[in-house]
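Standup notes, structure subgroup. Blocker cleared on the zinc ion input:
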Amino acid sequence: MMEIETSNQSEIVDITAGVERYVRESGIEDGICLVYSLHTTTALMINEADDALLNDILKLMERIVPQGAGYKHDRGEGNAHAHLQAALLGSSVVIPVEKGKLALGRWQRILFVELDGPRKRRISVRIIGE
Ligand code: ZN
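Run returned:
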């Protein structure tokens, strides 16, 4: 289990190095790596970790699902937008493992998306193969 502490209400964290460590320690040469978030207001994605792009992605999520736009769930916790944004992005990614390494493309990074922070978050990493 990977644990991270986010520092903003919405934020994207590059967790590639942490996941790579799990792959290395697993000793698995060929297989798949599942990265899964155990939360309902976070997401995972593969994309480029360019600061301007990460900002664009967060802005896009705000445009698609603005905060406080009359959602029913806001009567409780007031974080409906975060659940809805997370639902659009998805809560897991799967990456092939080849020759003991994550088979990521040149610009691809594993990105954890915080949508209702700051909070302590848990991410499950499972590597399956031989
Ligand atoms: Zn909620």
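Discussed briefly. The longest strand covers residues 120-129.
Next: hand off to the docking folks.
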